[in-house]
Design a protein that fits this description.
Length: 151
């Protein structure tokens, strides 16, 4: 009986070692994949947005340089960063954006400050009573003239 118990304990011990090694390999693979994904991120100087004017029903696409503020209706849109991936990677375009509203009394009120995702505009777009704004992409260059203080 003791021999069988000893063999059973040895088998259980080997099984636990195998499970532990598989777990460590999985965790190390996760960290390597996370580091590779972060290393493949492209920092872009231009963010591209779409804006909907609900009164006229018009959708307008507009480009904004990073740290520049552009007014769309009563909204002021300021992208702080815009990240994308190389064309060989799955698309993942994100931007940190601040959106303010200029009120009728010429006061500025922050409506949104956070991350927008081009792949899910409904998730983190700005929905205003009259205007909606969402991220559509990031660019390395644009036909829009750069801000006067850039460079």
């Amino acid at each position: 009986m003791k021999i069988k118990t000893g063999m059973l304990e040895l088998v259980n011990y080997r099984r636990w070692i195998g499970i532990l090694l598989c777990g460590l390999i999985s965790i190390s693979g996760f960290f390597v994949a996370t580091q590779n994904a972060a290393a493949e991120r492209l920092n872009n100087p231009v963010a591209t947005f779409a804006g909907l004017d609900k009164i006229t029903g018009r959708i307008i696409a507009f480009d904004v340089y990073i740290d520049e503020t552009v007014q769309f209706g009563a909204l002021q849109v300021t992208p702080r960063v815009c990240y994308s991936r190389p064309p060989t990677e799955p698309p993942n375009t994100t931007a940190f954006v601040e959106v303010d509203e200029v009120t009728l009394h010429n006061e500025i009120r922050r409506l949104f400050g956070g991350w927008m995702f081009a792949s899910s505009p409904g998730l983190k777009g700005v929905e205003h009573a009259v205007y909606d704004v969402w991220l559509t992409g990031c660019k390395q260059n644009t036909n829009v003239a750069p801000p006067a203080d850039a460079g």
